[in-house]
Design brief:
It is built from 14 helices and 16 strands. A seven-stranded mixed sheet has the order 4-12-11-10-9-5-8, sandwiched between helices. The longest helix is centred in the C-terminal third of the chain and has 24 residues. It is an alpha/beta fold and 448 residues long. The chain is globular and about 65 Å long.
């Protein structure tokens, strides 16, 4: 139903509107290109709609203002990093207080035990360790899994996302063979040496891979979140846990995005039983921090390993990991937000957002879908997919660009990699209604 010529014309119009209304961002972007790769301090910042990235001035709660003075409803929230809302006063106060007393000493302080206790209470696993990012946490847990099992390979799901972990930047080609994911820069080795990939929700493929006896661990999000939201089939997680136990593979659940399901993530909400649990982004209220937890049995074996004097060259850790500033941020965040009452506010808003999008889809009889996962919702240009490959096949970059440009030109920021909205405790029904109206206008304008 999409006229591609009209789409191109509409996109060009929105691109020009973006350029015309953001002169200061354009100027700053030009200056930054003289000293920064891609003109940005982090490569993914180039993935926004428009000829250049917006430069923000300040952000509070669920909104931010750019350097040209435009205010936006922020449904991206730092791709989950600011899920608690921007500039939380309690986190800012904790950071200031701790920075005034020291930031990093390679020594624990009083906040450490509180953080470990709270992580265990929320997520169920008894023993924890800190990391700077969820990527680091995943790397460390993969190392531990290979050590504990004596097996060489990890299993991931096709089109999964676990940060910039080498073993996970792998997809299946057209004949079902693991290959480096498109865009993966300088992969270290042939991915078949480290990684086995199976489609999400495909239990026969999962069991066949585990039955080889070479899989140290399965690294899984409870639902795929970075190639559209792909939900698990009924009973899938129960079968995943049973099969990993049957074949002696460890199960790692990465909740860095799926924390949107509730205070304890999908693990608590769905009764999952992982051997390792990874969480990042949200727990620091915007401050870089991550953590990973494990069962008591695994902890006892790892503690023996960590007692060795060569632990500082184990490939696990980092000088700034667990620094006092990060621990203060985690304590301030988890003691005041991401609690049951916050999710009781966020999840209904995500339902409203999804219903608003679905209403436009139904009105125009489009073959699109919108999925919800707790406080997160996302639309995709295909019927609901059961695996990542089906979602990836429906990617429409030109249509994505138009929808994002239309939204940002009207004061709405969505996650740049896809069409996702994440709710925070600071979003309102009015914010959701704005998106419903803007989305409807975009589709109606495109289909004229």
């Amino acid at each position: 139903m999409i006229d591609r010529q009209r789409l191109a014309k509409c996109r060009a119009t929105e691109e020009q509107r973006f350029v015309d209304t953001h002169p200061r961002s354009a100027s700053m972007a030009a200056d930054a290109r003289t000293t920064l790769l891609g003109g940005v301090p982090m490569a993914w910042m180039t993935r926004w709609p428009g000829a250049f990235p917006l430069f923000f001035d300040e952000a509070h709660g669920a909104r931010f203002t750019d350097v040209d003075g435009h205010e936006y409803v922020d449904f991206c929230l730092g791709d989950t990093g600011a899920m608690t809302g921007h500039a939380l006063p309690q986190v800012a106060d904790a950071l200031f207080a701790q920075a005034s007393r020291g930031i990093t000493t390679m020594l624990p302080n009083a906040d450490a035990a509180w953080v470990g206790t709270e992580l265990a209470r929320r997520f169920g696993l008894p023993i924890w360790q800190m990391a700077m990012t969820a990527t680091d946490a995943n790397r460390f847990v993969l190392r531990y899994s290979r050590f504990l099992t004596g097996r060489p390979k990890v299993l991931v799901f096709d089109w999964c996302y676990h940060g910039s972990v080498d073993e996970t930047l792998v997809t299946l080609d057209h004949i079902g063979r693991p290959i480096s994911r498109e865009g993966n820069i300088g992969p270290q080795v042939d991915p078949t040496l480290t990684t086995v990939v199976v489609p999400f929700n495909d239990l026969p493929a999962l069991e066949a891979a585990l039955a080889t006896g070479e899989i140290a661990c399965v690294l899984a999000e409870p639902a795929l979140t970075n190639i559209g939201i792909v939900l698990p089939d009924p009973g899938y997680h129960e079968a995943l846990r049973a099969l990993t136990r049957k074949y002696g593979a460890l199960l790692i659940i990465d909740e860095t995005h799926t924390i949107c399901v509730g205070p304890g993530g999908a693990t608590a909400a769905w009764g999952l039983e992982p051997d390792f649990f990874v969480i990042g982004k949200t727990i620091g209220g915007g401050m870089p921090a991550a953590a990973y937890g494990c069962t008591m049995e695994i902890a006892q074996r790892i503690n023996e390993l960590l007692a060795d004097k060569s632990v500082d060259t184990s490939g696990v850790g980092g000088t700034l990991t667990g620094n006092a500033l990060a621990m203060a941020a985690v304590k301030a965040t988890l003691s005041t937000t991401l609690r049951a009452d916050d999710f009781a506010h966020m999840i209904p808003l995500a339902t409203e957002w999804a219903n608003g999008v679905q209403g436009t889809i139904d009105r125009h009889e489009l073959s699109w879908n919108v999925q919800q996962l707790g406080g997160r919702a996302e639309y995709w240009f295909c019927p609901p997919p059961r695996d990542g490959a089906a979602a990836a096949a429906a990617v429409d970059h030109e249509l994505d660009d138009f929808m994002h440009l239309w939204a940002v030109n009207r004061g709405i920021l969505l996650t740049p990699f896809h069409n996702m909205a994440l709710m925070s405790p600071h979003h309102t029904t009015a914010d959701v209604q704005l998106h419903t109206d803007v989305f409807a206008e975009a589709v109606e304008h495109l289909l004229q």
